[in-house]
Each structure stands twice: as C-alpha cells, then as structure tokens.
Design brief:
This protein has helices at 2-24, 27-43, 49-124. By secondary structure, it is mainly α. The chain has one domain. It starts with a helix and ends with a helix.
C-alpha cells in the first residue's frame, strides 16, 4: 500500500514539475517577470552601488534570466529530439535493409544446401 502511495506521489510530482517547468520556461513568463521587475524598480529604486548590485543579482538574474534559460533549454531539447528522431528513422531503415539482406542470404544458403544434398549421392558413387 505504501508503494502505491509513493508511486502516486511521484507521478503527481512529475506531472506538476513538468507543467511548472513548461510554464516557467516560456517567453510569456519572461515578459511578466520582466514587467514586475521594472515596476518594482520604479517603486523602490536602489540608492547606492551595493543596492544596485543586489538588485541586479537578486531580482534581474534570478527573476528574469531563469525563464530565458529554461526557454533556451526547451529549445535545445527540441533540436536534440529532432536529431534523435531523424537518426532513429535512418537506423530503422538500415535495420530493415539488413533484415532483408539476411533473409535473402538465408534463402540462398538453403538453396545451396539443397544443391549440395542433391550432389552428394552423385559424388559418392
């Protein structure tokens, strides 16, 4: 029973994580976060150099850059998937050709066995 609960919990976490990753990795999310960052900047402007550095690191890089990195990751994954699918298609075509060649070779081998079987009595006599 505990195993079923653990599997259900894992499935839910995987589902939720996938949905959140997709949502947070969109350019729409980037625009929303960027707008919020700019609104906060207008309301509460940093006063000194250290405050600007903290703002840049905490707000901009963590808030704005992360959706862009996620977006780039998704795009990179899509390209990799296309490459893998193309390679898989080519490999499967080659595999089918090899299987056909193997079938033909087996047929030829069987024919050769039949010929040798037919010739044996003639060569032994």
């Amino acid at each position: 029973m505990a195993q079923k609960k653990q599997n259900a919990y894992k499935r839910f976490n995987d589902w939720l994580g996938d949905k959140l990753a997709r949502i947070l990795s969109t350019m729409e999310c980037f625009y929303i976060v960027a707008a919020l960052v700019l609104v906060i900047l207008v309301i509460q402007t940093p006063k000194d150099g250290l405050s600007w550095v903290q703002y840049a690191v905490q707000t901009f890089f963590q808030g704005v850059a992360l959706p862009v990195l996620g977006y780039v990751g998704w795009k990179s994954g899509e390209r990799a998937e296309k490459t893998i699918n193309g390679t898989h298609k080519i490999v499967m075509e080659e595999l089918n050709m090899v299987r056909e060649e193997l079938r033909l070779a087996r047929e030829e081998r069987d024919e050769m066995k039949e010929i040798l079987t037919a010739l044996r009595p003639k060569t032994e006599a």
